[in-house]
Amino acid sequence: MCGIVGYIGHKQAFPILISGLKRLEYRGYDSSGISILNGDIKTFKRKGKVSDLEDFVKGKDIEGCIGIGHTRWATHGEPNDVNAHPHTSMNGYFTLIHNGIIENYSSLKKKLEQRSYTFKSETDTEVLVNLIEYIYLKGNASAEMAVRLALQKVVGAYGLVIMCGDEKDKLIAARKGSPLVIGVGDDEYYIASDATPIVQYTKSVIYLNDDDVAVIQRGELSLKTIRNDKQTPVIHQINIEIGEIEKNGFDHFMLKEIYEQPRSILDTFRGRISLERTAIHLGGLFEVMPQLIQAKRIVIIGCGTSWHAGMVGEYLLEEFARIPVEVEYASEFRYRNPVIYKDDVVIAISQSGETADTLAAIKQAKDAGALVLGICNVVGSSIPRETHAGVYTHAGPEIGVASTKAFTAQVTVLTMMAISLGMARGFVTPEHGKQLIAELSAIPEKIEKVLANNEKYKQIAGLFRFATNFLYLGRGYLFPVALEGALKLKEISYIHAEGYPAAEMKHGPIALIDNKMPVVVIATRDQTYEKIVSNIQEVKARSGIVIAVVNEGDEVIGKMADFVLEVPLTDFAVAPLVTVVPLQLLSYHIAVLRGCNVDQPRNLAKSVTVE
Ligand code: G6P
């Protein structure tokens, strides 16, 4: 969380920093700030959105070709002007932006207070900038050395960029646990938390590794570790196009991303499945396939929507590959001393590839000797670099905070893995494999049909925009879809919603049913269809309101439910990919009608880099 940007070169820094912060606003939007180094350092910061900062600086002197900027998701200290970044050290020598948490900040603060340091904000970041200054002044160190020595004393996570008033033509960037990318231009450098603010200027980037410290001057970059070991910067080429990170005529990124799903799913399986040869080729898993085929157990870890995708993965992998699967929240896994064997395979799922709990769980699984695989969307992010092997989802940048196309892309990868392992282990015959691959390749077209019903979702959303509670029910593969539907509604509309396995309703939630609370039932045809029909009857018998997601032409549920959302018939194994889409759109329209900020829901951030 928190987005950071920096620029050093021959252009005016301010416009680059502001547009970079707008692109990174999905990482946090409690406050924002910018510092420009032009002779001296000028800092402008404001509580609220980047647009509030833009208004605040109107008419002020923002000239200068070196600068840093920050958009904040508050951890230490409430969102206000004082706690906003950048933070400047007590004597004004250093100004710093930071993403992450300095865990030992309170003991460092005490020591600095004993040495007469005073603090204006409640942040851990101000402690760090003062520590750097203290070392700089006391040790007669260079700025770079002061940064390295200070970071050796820090416990925690950081991605940071620092300016020093004494060393005017320089930015210093460092990373541990929080991502930092440096864009390499023509005698200029761009720094950002991810590549999205950089792609419009350059496609050449350097990803910093943990413990790296980069000293960046106009035409020169040197890379070391915090222990002063020289590193060789590796330049990667990124292939994100600018159109992918703009709204392209949609009102919100979330809506654009929902509509992108036919394309993004195609991109996920493009070149990886072959109907003619009944083959699935996941290049990233090629070398580990023998180990994967022999796995005694698979443990899937993730957070939020990625955890829901993992649950679909459990059903798929157990069904087709016949390998026992457990799905765990990464945050629980890492703290509960799990039993992990060397022949276990751990699959970490993450859109951003930066989620702190997932990264920590990966480390734990690696230490226990398991083979650890990643399913990630952001190329070059930390999780793909920390895992032994993996598969990129290739869904393209996802900017809306509520995840949509990343979920369907993750499920697509898990479907391919399950079919491929099922065939390799002899549980899926070539004919069955061929049929499943055909079903998967038909999904983009079927989602197009679901999207064509958008007006209907909008109408139903209008009827339920004032509801205070929703219940989502599903069985089998559709239970995780119910969880995901409920999460989408909570995240962006602030309506309380719960997802439940439909049969479990009888053990509690049935007590909530009345003629006010909408019950969304995902009830497409599979082996539990008759059972879920009974569950709908149980809701109706108690005057409940049922909104049912059904297959086209389903007259049985059509007669029972108050509202139906029709989706094309699919094999039950790929039904989550189609049935989740009406739920995404329903949540979207409800949130818009309630006047909520869909792309930037309150208190949330897209990339959760703190535990
Ligand atoms: C945050 C986001 C969710 C996301 C979750 C896990 O909570 O708001 O949309 O599902 O983090 O993120 P990851 O990047 O690991 O998938």
Notable traits:
single chain; about 600 residues; alpha/beta; 7-stranded antiparallel sheet; 20 helices; about 35% helix; about 25% strand; binds 6-O-phosphono-alpha-D-glucopyranose
Overview of the structural elements:
- This protein has 611 residues and is of the alpha/beta class.
- It contains 20 helices and 27 strands.
- The chain has an eight-stranded antiparallel β-sheet with strand order 3-2-4-1-10-9-11-15, with helices on one face. Strands 5-6-7-8-12-13-14 form a seven-stranded antiparallel β-sheet, covered by helices on one side. A five-stranded parallel β-sheet has the order 19-18-20-21-22, with helices on both faces.
- Strand 13 and strand 14 form a beta hairpin.
- Helix 9 runs parallel beside helix 13, helix 13 runs antiparallel to helix 14 and helix 17 runs parallel beside helix 20.
- The radius of gyration is 25 Å and the shape is globular.
- The structure holds 6-O-phosphono-alpha-D-glucopyranose (G6P).
- 6-O-phosphono-alpha-D-glucopyranose binds next to helix 9.
- The site of 6-O-phosphono-alpha-D-glucopyranose (G6P) has 16 residues, from helix 9.
Largest sheet geometry: 8 strands, antiparallel
By secondary-structure content and strand pairing, the structural class works out as: alpha/beta
Helix content: 25-40%
Number of helices: 20
Strand sequence of the main sheet, in spatial order? 3-2-4-1-10-9-11-15
pLDDT averaged residue by residue: 94
Number of strands: 27
Which ligands are bound? 6-O-phosphono-alpha-D-glucopyranose
**What's the Cα radius of gyration?**
25 Å
Task: List low-confidence stretches.
Answer: none
- Content of β-strand: 15-25%
Global shape: globular
Distance between the termini: 11 Å
